[in-house]
Amino acid sequence: MRNYGAIGIDFGTESIKAVALEAGTDGSVKVVGTSAALSEGLRKGVIVDIDAAAKSLSHAIEALKKSADIGSGNIYAGIGGVGLSFQKSKGLVAVSRADGEVSKEDLKRAVSASESNLVRAQNREILHSIPISYKIDNETVTHDPIGLSGIKLEAETFFVTVFAQHFKGLLKTFDEAGVSLEDAVSLPMASAQALLSKREKEVGVMVLDIGSSTTSLIIFEENYPYSLEILPIGSGHITNDIAVGFQIPIEEAEKLKVNYGTVEKNSETPATKRTGKNSADDIVYGHYSKKKLTNIIEDRLSDIFELTEKHLKKVGREGLLPGGVVVTGGGSNLPGITEYTREHLKLPARLAEIHNLGGMREKVKNPAWAGAVGVALIALENHTNGGAFAGGTKGTLMRWLRAFLP
Ligand SMILES: Nc1ncnc2c1ncn2[C@@H]1O[C@H](COP(=O)(O)OP(=O)(O)OP(=O)(O)O)[C@@H](O)[C@H]1O
Ligand SMILES: [Mg+2]
After folding, report:
1. 129-155, pLDDT tens digit by residue?
2. Which of 270, 301, 328, 399 has CA 20 to 30 A from 174's CA?
3. Where exactly are the structural domains of the chain?
4. Nearest atom of ligand 1 to the alpha carbon of 214
């Protein structure tokens, strides 16, 4: 029997990352192909020009097919960008069995009831519905409630939602590119799937994904998602500031950032420190002061971290996540970023690392790939369990497909 494969696609604002994974019958997972293409038609992680986005998607898929020997496999897409958000809500049902024993069916009904109670703007779609706690007859249940007895069952559910318009844009893009989509999941949940250990999720942890136009945060606690936020600033803004600061084209600013950018302590040259003036050592590419470059980067990065801190404060987790911060996304390649994170958020921090992959794992080593890998991992898990990961979008997706496809 051929192993089962799945493709995960991260439609980022700067680039589309596509990865093909294959699951062995022994539970191992191999990277069998990857491709990246510049993405057009997105703003802040949201598809705004379907034609342009569809072209980019076609390029990415073509390149993936060339790079990989992919047999069967479903294609899953990650949805990120501004407009992604979360809400919690509660639902109460009567336990249905005469003997008062809670059944799986009761749990489902309680989650549906919490969905009905969701104060939801009409134009939002649910991407995940994850029950995070249950009460039986007003008593909190810490374990699986199935098999316990009572009269009333209450579920509290964590919903990840997205603007319907954004969801529709994604489906139309896949349709236009002639790529059949199996399901869509949120990118923060996908990255968490690829990067976090069970223990980290248990004690409290945050994934900080610094992309090009956005920075996404997702917090887990007691094994469940706790909050999620998309900030409208990313590493691309740093590049823009460098372009303005040095009055140079964006492409050159990007090179300057990638090759010489750093927030490492003591990256200043001894000569600069001594004289406080530009010395030969401070000049890179023959023109630019490294010190000025560092200042520009730090200024913009501090905006991102201020907003992150604000979110942590808002949800009452400032300095309170023992699992710390896992920094990911292309922007996490900046030297010194973990130390910077530690210092600014007063939390432990580590760089994203994807474990337990075989095959061409070197290709997805860069944290920019965590989203795509996570999406494909969820696809594999869904296939194995035959279930919808974290209350997936299957229903929503099918409804939309019926609504606008022939
Ligand atoms: N070595 C590096 N140093 C600093 N920044 C880097 C480095 N390598 C890549 N980046 C930055 O990472 C960003 C791209 O990251 P990523 O691929 O995660 O973004 P994206 O997913 O396309 O965007 P978004 O998530 O905002 O939609 C770019 O701004 C790029 O400049
Ligand atoms: Mg991204």
Report:
1. 999 999 999 999 978 899 999 999 999
2. 328
3. 85-164
4. 26
CA atoms within 13 A on the CB side of 277: 3
Q: How far apart, in whole angstroms, are the C-alpha atoms of residue 130 and residue 136?
A: 18
Ligand nearest to the CA of 13: 1
60: amino acid identity, one letter: A
Cα–Cα nearest to 369, from 217, 218, 246, 195 = 195
CA of 327 to the centre of ligand 1 (A): 12
From the CB of 235, is ligand 1 less than 6 Å away? yes
Q: Which of 170, 260, 333 to mutate to test the pocket of ligand 1 (most atoms within 8 A of CB)?
A: 333
User: Tens digit of pLDDT for each residue in 69-94?
Assistant: 776 678 999 999 999 999 999 999 99
pLDDT of residue 406: 47
Structure-model confidence comparison of residues 275 and 107, the more confident one: 107
Q: Under CATH, what is the fold of the domain 85-164?
A: Dna Ligase; domain 1 (3.30.1490)
Q: How far is the CA of 375 from the centre of ligand 2 (A)?
A: 12
For residue 368, which ligand has an atom nearest its CA? 1
In contact, 234 and 215? CB cutoff 8 Å: yes
Please indicate whether residue 83, judged by its CB atom, sits closer than 6 Å to ligand 1.
Answer: no
Cα 227 from Cα 234, distance rounded (Å):
19
CB contact set of 385 (below 8 Å; sequence gap of 6+): none
Token pair for 230:
């998309």
